[in-house]
Every structure is written in structure tokens, then in C-alpha cells.
Amino acid sequence: MRSAPLVSPDAAPSDAVVTLQGASFGYGDGAVLSDVDLSIRKGEIVAIVGPNGSGKSTLMKGVLGLNERVAGTVTLFGTDSTEFHDRARLGYVPQRHTLSASVRATAEEIVATGRLPRIGWLGRLRATDRQIVARSLDVVGLADRAATEVSTLSGGQQRRVLIARALAGQPEVLIMDEPTAGVDAANQHVLADVLDRLVERDVTMVIVTHELGALERLLTRIVVIDGGRIRFDGTPQAYAAARDSVHHDHDSHHHDLELDGHHPSLAHGPLDVDHTDRSRP
Amino acid sequence: MIDLLSVDFMQRALIAALLVGTVAPMVGIFLVQRRLSLIGDGMGHVALAGVAIGLVAGAAPVLTALLAAVVAAVVIELLRARGRTNGDVALAVIFYGGIAGGVVIISKSPSGTPANLMKYLFGSILTTQRTDLYVFAGLALLISVTTWALRPRLFAVANDEEYARAVGLPVLPLNIVLAVLTATTVVVAMRVVGLLLISALMIVPNAASQLVARSFSGGLRWAIAFGLVSSVGGVALSYPLDTPSGGTIVLLAVALFVVTALVTGVMARVGGRRHDVAETHAHEHGAECGHPAVTHGDHVDYVHDGHLHAAHEGHYDEHGVHHDHPAPPGPETASTGPAGTTAGPTTGSRP
Asked: Among A170, A190, A166, which residue's Cα sits nearest to residue A94?
């Protein structure tokens, strides 16, 4: 059971997993995200942060080949993305609120679909594939829910089913879209623990999110995207320092809020209860 | 019944019903999953144009119908994939063009009587010829083998198309295969169920099966069972009742759905009253919650202050007190029969 690692060892000659050079993504003429240079190396835990509509999802979908690249190059594991066909090496965890709304399916059946890219066109799941599926469910703490119908699981558990589905493909990098969105605080910590376990297994992770929340302690690097461009790229320490320095600069409230990941439009309403209100008699 | 089977055309009709009852729900479950429940209807419309061309040209109507439906299926999937045109409107143009063309062309054929049209639209057990039966059997075999072989992939694409695309599954080819399977099923079912009612035999057994199933594979098995009961039962009933086979089959399928809905509804209410829900707790039981896990029959319980907690939907069920001797049969195990009394919790924390 424990012989093969869930995430296969380094197969690429270079340790760059994803490299973008002058990349622009979008639809037709309008690039949503332009001129991005970014390289993600093996073992990094990168958060791609930005407010809604900043272009971070466009970046992620561009890497996954789900939208149009209008300029630049995307290199995956040292191969140009147009020539790259072994897409199962990228493990995608989409943002989904419901896993299977139209027909009933068990957690195990959903996770087993993550194994399909690793077996041929007509291949069936063999005993080892089933073990990998079972182990993926175990890693996310849902081994006892394998036969449970997914629509009866909580939002946080459904998110973990999607992580298990990606793990079943034995990817070399996990790309997660808003893993904590819509998950309550208690379940966010369960989720963070699951990701912790993956970090111990040296899984490379790219986490696209609008709030760092419970995940901040895991990160090795933070990339801030806003207005279709990269605004910050560095370690969590540098990010904290930058956040603090912006914080002290009273003229740039906009940047302050954007780096904090709060919703600018909601922050200063007349009905807001903030600390100054509480100190009043 | 014996006297039923001795009639030649009844034998053929029952065999055709057996084939149709198996393959229609098998393909239909993926249409339900993709929320394309009505697409079979449209393909039936197009197949009518094929039948008409066959009758006018003197070719076999089954083959021309198959050709028309398959071409329409591929065109529809390609239009959907391009996403440039309004998909719904494009489908409507193809479907209504098909049925209108069918009606006009059939009026020009030597055998173009209204009665002839009716038996294609609503099915007639009298129309199944011996040669047709071989063609149907071959097509049904092709449909079931293909569906079975591609089942995990069709499920993956229908479940989450974006994910399937991201991990490199051949999404468009799989969708085209499903469309062609649907078109072929329409043609196989057209003699027995009729072109206007085919979609019902693909969808209604699945609607009933979703009420009882707890997994996709279970849903598929139940759907085939419901499909077989309705198609074979409907054909058998249509002879003594002297009713069109298609309508009889579909009414039987609808009746099965209504009965299943009533039974599962009543059982859910009785079961809901009978099962004990454990006190709510803030944490979720799992490998690291600190509560020992014990296997209990077919599931895992967690020992929480001496009580067994079993995960059930959004809460935990109380499965009795944990002792060294078998736990008293809980409300769930009591309803599943003797398993509850024999399968005591065997202590053994998970690795």
C-alpha cells in the first residue's frame, strides 16, 4: 500500500514545473492577463492572490490549457505547452460547489475518474489503481466515506474529494482554485491539515485564492495579481513586510486593501462596526 | 403468456423489447447526467426524415433512419463544441427541420398513408420484421459493448467536462461517441417504442433509478432493471389490451416511477423517524480525531465517550454502546436484517 509515492518523483530534467514567458491570456483580442513572467519550481507552495476579476483564474486556466493564449510561451516540465500531452502530470482541483448534482455517485466513483488519464483509452482500473484511489481518499481523511453519496457530504468534504481526485492521477503539481471558498472555519483547518500532509510528501502546489486564511502558514511564496498583471512576487516574509510598509503609507489605501485580500468596496461602509466604534462611550 | 409467445410477431416484439429495455437506460443515464434529457426526442424527429427517405427511395428505412440520426448527432455535438451559435436554437432548427421533412417526404411515398406514419411515430409490435431483428440485435450489442467499455470515461466527461479537458481526456470524441450511441438507440427503439416516445424509455427508468440508487453503478443497474420491466411488460400488455406498444411501455415506465417515488418517500419518512442522531459535535471524526475507529458491518464507527458514532449524511448516527460483546442492533442494522446482530464491532484502530 505504501510502496509507491502518491506523487511521482522528479521525471523532468529541469526542476521548473511551470514557466511563463511574456504570456498573455484571454479571449480573442482582449487579453485579461498580459505579459506574465513566472516560473514555479518543484517543491514550492505558491499562492496566487488577488481580488475577484484580477486575472488569477485566467492565469490558472491558461496553464491548464483551458483558455486561449494570445502571446508569449507556456512551458510545462520543460516542454512547450503546445507539444505537451501528458496533462495528467498537472493535478487540477477546480472550484466546485456541487460534485454530482444530476445523478448519484459515490466519493470513490468521483475519485476514480482522476485515475483515468493514467490508464489507456480502453483500460480498466486494476487492483493497483483501486489502491491508489483508496489511498488518495485516505490522504484527505475520507477513507471512511468512500461509499458515501457525494451530495450528502459537506462543502469542505466535497472539496477534499476533489483534491483526492487530483491525487489519484499521481500529479507532479497540484493546481487548486479557491480551495477554501465557501468552507467554514473549522473545515478550513481540516483542509489546511490535509494540505500539510501533502507538503510533507513534497507535493508542489499552486493555490489560487482571494484570501490566504488558514493556508498562509503552508506557503513558500506569494504572487499577487491585480489588474491583469503581477504586482508582487516573493516570500511570505517579504509579503508581510510589503503589506506592513503599504499599511503605514496612508495615501495608498487601495493597495493596502488589495494586498490584504479584503473587499475594498465593503470595508468602509457607514454601518461598519470597527475598533474605533467599540471604544466610544 | 404461452399463447402470447406462440404468436410469431409477439416473439419478435418481445426480443426487440428486451434489447431496447437494456440499451435505452444504459445510454440514457449519461444524458441525464449531462442534463440533455430531451436530446433523444430531437434525434427521433430527425430519424423520421430518414425513415421517409428510405420509404420513398425504396431502401431499408432502418438504415436510412440510422444514417440521418447519426449525421444529426455528430453535427449537434460539433455545433455545441464550437459554442459560436446559440446551441439551443441550432438544435431546434435541426429537430423541427427533421420532423417536418419527414412528414412531407413520407406523403410522397407509395406507402405514405397516415397509418404508416403512426406506427413509426408511436411504435407497433406488428412492424418488427425478422431481418430487422438481426439488425437491431447487432446494433444493441454494439451499443452495450461500447457503453460498457467507455463507461468510466463517459462518466468522467459528463461529471466534470472542464476537469476532463484539463487532464487531457478526449472530451470532444467522447461526446460525439455518446451522441452517436443516442442516435443508434433511437433507431433500435423506433419499431417498438416509436420515434416520439423513445426519449421516455431512455430517461424515465433513470428518473426512477435515481430515487433508489446510492451510487452511479447502482443507478445504472436499477435503470436497466426498470427499463426491462417496462419494455417487456409493455409489449406483453399491449397485445391483450390491443394498445400501441410504445404508449403502453412508457405508461408502465411512468407508473413504475410514481410507485418508486411513493415507496421511497414513505420509507424515508419512516426511516427518518426511526434513526437516532448523535449529539452534534464541532469536529469531524477521522483518522486524526483521537476517537478510536472500529469497523461495524459495512461501515466505520468512532467510539465517542463509549458511544458508537457513524457518519450519515450531514450528521452522526448513534449506533449504540461500545462493549466487548456485539452491540445491540441499531436502528439501521435492524432494518437490513440479520447482519446487524452478527456483525459486532471488532475493535482495531486504523493505521
From this structure: A166
Single-letter code of the amino acid located at B76: I
CB contact under 8 A, B160 and A66: no
**Chain B, nearest residue to A154 by Cα:** B314
- Under DSSP, is residue B60 helix (H, G, I), strand (E, B) or coil? coil
Give the homologous superfamily in CATH for domain A16-266.
P-loop containing nucleotide triphosphate hydrolases (3.40.50.300)
- Chain A partners of B156 at a C-beta cutoff of 8 Å? 113, 116
Query: For residue B210, which residues of chain A lie inside 8 Å, CB to CB?
Result: 103-104
Which residue of A104, A106, A121, A136 is the best one to mutate when testing the B interface, meaning the one whose CB has the most B CBs within 10 A?
A104
Instruction: Please tell me if residue B34 touches chain A, with a CB cutoff of 8 Å.
Output: yes
Mutate to test the interface with B, among A89, A113, A133 (most CBs of B within 10 A): A113
Q: Which residues of B touch A110 (CB under 8 A)?
A: 159
Q: What is the C-alpha to C-alpha distance for residues A223 and A212, in angstroms, rounded to an integer?
A: 11
Nearest to B66 by CA among B132, B112, B160: B132
Give the Cα separation of A39 and A127 in Å (integer). Answer: 37
- Cα separation, B216 vs B231, in Å, equals 22
Chain B residue with the nearest C-alpha to that of A88: B167
ipTM: 0.79
Q: Spell out the domains of chain B, with CATH numbers in brackets.
A: 2-199 (1.10.3470.10), 293-347 (no CATH)
Per-residue pLDDT of chain B (351 residues; tens, 9 = 90+): 556 666 778 888 899 999 999 999 999 999 999 988 888 889 999 999 999 998 888 888 889 999 999 999 999 888 888 766 666 787 888 899 998 998 898 888 776 666 677 778 888 777 677 888 888 999 999 999 999 999 999 999 999 999 999 998 999 999 999 999 999 999 998 888 888 899 999 999 999 999 999 999 999 999 999 999 999 999 999 888 988 889 999 999 999 999 999 999 998 888 766 666 665 565 666 655 666 666 666 566 767 666 677 666 556 666 666 654 444 444 443 333 333 333 333 333 333
Q: Which cell numbers in the block locate residue B282? A: 464541532
